[in-house]
Amino acid sequence: MDLGWGRRSHLAASAAAVVLLVFASLCFAAAAGAEVRSGSATDPASALLLPEEDIVAITASYDTAGVMSAAVTTAGPPSLTEELALGVAFGSLQGDECVTPAAVMLSLYSQATASWTFGTSEDAALKSVVGNTTTLSASSAAIANQPFNCAEPVVLETDGTEVLAVDELASPVVLNAPPPPAPPPASTPPSSPPPASTTPPAPPKQAKLALSASKTLTLRRGKWQQVKLQVANGGDATAAKVALQLGTAKGVAVKPKSGQLQLKSIAPGKSKTASFELLLTKAAKATSTIAVKLTGAKGLKAAGTLTLKAWKKPRGHKGGKGKGKEPPPEEPPLAEKLFYDYEMQASESAKLIGFAFLDGEWVYRGIPTGGLPGCTATTGGPDKEGCLKYAYDPKSGALQIESIGSGKIGADGKLEVGGKSYSPTSIPKPGTKLQVEQEYIGYVGLCGLITGCTTWHEHLMLNNGGEFVLSRESLSTLGGGGPGETFVAAGSFPPDQHGTYTIEPRGRIKLSFADGSVQTKTIAILLDSAGQPDPVNEGLLLDSTYFTFLPKD
Questions:
Q1: Is the distance from CB of 303 to CB of 243 less than 8 angstroms?
Q2: Is the pTM of this model over 0.90?
Q3: Residue 8 and residue 6: Cα distance in Å, rounded?
Q4: What integer is the mean pLDDT of 363-379?
């Protein structure tokens, strides 16, 4: 075997994101004269390996029209851990070895997608999992008419910085061309009609209304105040004839007087703002509650509440009647909160993804650069970074994001939306100083395989004197008080790698380099198991770079 499946090697990072192929792309007609070579092999189960790591069978085929496919069976169902991956290499048989040139298909078991590479060509591959069998398939003119007549599967294990080949077959699978077809029989009986489809009909599309109305407002008596509520449609059908109805409470006046607002229709994944005015009279209680109801065509309903508190003059205030300071506006519960997750990829470093909530109305899909932006219009979507409107009910934790769908903030503080879970961070206050040293380890390529890879380290140091180092060079430390708390002679670095920093409002860190250049990045601190910000042991984010690797001595 000589296809370069590495035993240990550093991983590498920045290839194009893997995109799932449409199945039809694999089902093109074979070119005239195309040959299909296929083969299979089995391997006894090993008591030294976990079932999901142990390859027990493979069936592989290569079509010279440009299609390769491999079904690999393990002793147990594939684990969804991000640490395990499956690779299959197609090459040419020389003696008892499968050698280059070779095409490689690779997929993390935790992902529904796969990729392939051959020479300088690289693209997405198709992946399916049924029971203990994982099937990888790829098609391209780049792999057509190649001398491939063998295949080698391997289960790989990675921790994000290294790759280890956990299991592979003792010898490659030989792919043989089929024998000539037998002559057709003299007559062929008529085929039976295809069975009737048993696929159940798709459920009808439905609208689903959501309201961020369970909130508390502080109002001054005798003064009209505008109130805005977000009404979202998280369904897959248009919500028609949508109306909002406000309830009544003693001493609370509403404009419009009827308390009803007509929002007409709301498209799927979109939202509208309901705006009205409220007035607390002298007859209003210190705390009043108003019911909010939504209705729409075809029995659509949703409900929430508004809690209104009458503002009280601060104790010790000596001014005249009505001269007290206006109550401060209520801070939306999700304002300036950033949630993140890692999207693992087969041929590059994990990509940082997330949502940054900006205020009570807008959320940014993705990890913003240069601090938290200001949004005034929808610019994002289900697969596009940008601004989206959202509605949130802090009482229940229910969340609705425009064009993304429904979600929630769990009891553990994590954001769950779109089938993923995102961890919370802490945005440091303006003027904060940190004493921390962390690293980012990046890679690009298929480390451990014949295609090779590149790796690099980025070092970050911030000290409580307002100095920083941001370099790809190893840091020279002068003592330290504990892990991640080393002291660095920043002046020993080139002027484009060190300087002074300032943490500004809205999650911005301003890096003023000694060479006169300035960079502004988004900064967020990761949380420990108790939910407290811990840049020393957990790490921090600068834009989309995650500094989470403690430097090694």
A1: no
A2: no
A3: 5
A4: 95
